[in-house]
Design goal:
three-stranded mixed β-sheet; 2 domains; Rossmann fold; 12 strands; disordered C terminus; UDP-galactose 4-epimerase, domain 1; alpha/beta; binds nicotinamide-adenine-dinucleotide; seven-stranded parallel β-sheet; 13 helices; binds 2'deoxy-thymidine-5'-diphospho-alpha-D-glucose; about 350 residues
Length: about 350
């Protein structure tokens, strides 16, 4: 099979496939390449949700394995089955949770990557894609940075991801494994666990709950629709001569938190009085901004979703999928929510999340 055929009809191992981006990737592959075979390996942490993949259960060429990427025996057994593509989405991903409790981040985002790479070293793969993050560069206050910029992660999540990112690179340089590393900007879209900015604010606004803005609300991120992200990953699978390389992925949609809140409230015709300032995130990175021109030059990929359209479509999705997200905003989520947010307007305290 040539590369194109291996993308269209090959064997995929998608770790963390029950999460937000992983499940959007699986959906894209299943719809675009019906002959491809997809195995998902996911531990189903609080962020992993079988409902995200329910439509594929029992369909030919699809297999779900519940398990941990840090489980050496299980990972070795699965990888020994032989894959054209392994994409590692599995991670602890929420910065605020990493500030409260970094341990799991080190185990999954560093050690788990090591376990996967060891299995690949033993059994081989067509290409291993380590899904890293633009957070590994730390906060960027000047021009958008390219892939040669130093890594200066500033929170336990970002530092753990930097460890996984560099381990993957080391397995390329040391053992010649076919590894590609991607560093993407902030994703938004359907099936995002409602703890991240856009999914939290959209679901809170739908329930007339306050939108908790850290500090000034002036912190900036580049927002990419998840569909653009998964298409970038496919473009990288199709590309020749990229092993051992790092690719930034972004969209050029830089917005601050208050602007995002404004878009969501306007889409739902809700009042700006729902915005509530809360005590800032410790070490809150003021801005991320990556130059993704290398990816465009090497693959022709470009982001396609205009932010104004993507955010409207996303808010509508959460509006129409209450049965998907409402059960998630209960139990442990509410405990985390109450622990994490300190509302500056004392009168608002106690009412949130209830
Ligand atoms: P998510 O939190 O929605 O999903 C993570 C998934 O990984 C869940 O299904 C979870 O059950 C699974 N998982 C966690 N620990 C595991 C383990 N030890 N073994 C197996 N499975 C495990 O995350 P997401 O937002 O979809 O992010 C996916 C990847 O993309 C992560 O590696 C993240 O660092 C990276 N990333 C995310 C963004 C973003 O904006 N969301 C941006 C850039 C990079
Ligand atoms: O940049 C890529 C990264 O983006 C990914 O690697 C991470 O997995 C992902 O979680 C995300 O990290 P951020 O910290 O940038 O995303 P988050 O949605 O948590 O926050 C985005 C911005 O919004 C940030 O400035 C903090 C602010 N914020 C966030 C939340 C959840 C608030 O003001 N209030 C909130 O309640």
């Amino acid at each position: 099979m040539d590369r194109q055929q291996r993308v269209a009809a090959g064997r995929y191992l998608v770790t963390g496939g029950a999460g937000f981006i992983g499940s959007n990737f699986v959906r894209h592959i299943r719809r675009t390449f019906p002959e491809a075979q997809v195995t998902v390996l996911d531990k189903l942490t609080y962020a992993g949700n079988p409902a995200n993949l329910a439509e594929f259960e029992g369909t030919p060429g699809y297999r779900f394995v519940r398990g941990d990427i840090a489980d050496r025996d299980l990972v070795a057994e699965i990888v020994a089955g032989g894959f054209d593509w392994i994409l590692n989405f599995a991670a602890e991903t929420h910065v605020d949770r990493s500030i409260g409790d970094p341990g799991e981040f080190v185990i999954t985002d560093v050690y788990g990557v090591h376990v996967l790479l060891e299995a690949v070293r033993a059994h081989g793969v067509g290409r291993f894609v380590q899904i890293s993050t633009d957070e590994v560069y730390g906060e960027i206050l000047g021009d958008p940075v390219d892939e040669r910029a130093p890594l200066m992660p500033r929170n336990p999540y970002a530092a753990s991801k930097a460890g996984g990112d560099r381990l993957a690179y080391a397995y390329h340089t040391t053992y010649d494994l076919p590894v590609v590393i991607t560093r993407c900007a902030n994703n938004y879209g359907p099936y995002q666990y409602p703890e991240k900015l856009i999914s939290l604010f959209a679901t809170n606004a739908l329930d007339d709950e306050r939108l908790p803005v850290y500090g000034s609300g002036k912190n900036r991120r580049d927002w990419i629709h998840v569909q653009d992200h998964v298409e970038a990953l496919v473009a990288l699978l199709l590309a020749d001569g990229v092993d051992g390389e790092v690719f930034n992925i972004g969209a050029g949609n830089e917005k601050d938190v208050l602007a995002i809140a404004g878009h969501i409230l306007a889409a739902l015709e809700k009042p700006e009085t729902l915005i509530a300032h809360v005590v800032d995130r410790p070490g809150h990175d003021r801005r991320y901004a990556v130059d993704f021109s290398k990816l465009t030059a090497r693959t022709g990929w470009q982001p396609r979703m205009p932010f104004a359209e993507g955010i409207l479509e996303t808010v509508r999705w959460y509006q129409e999928h209450g049965p998907w997200w409402r059960p998630l905003k209960s139990g442990e989520f509410l405990e985390f929510y109450r622990r994490n947010y300190k509302f500056l307007d004392a009168a608002a305290e106690g009412g949130e999340g209830s």
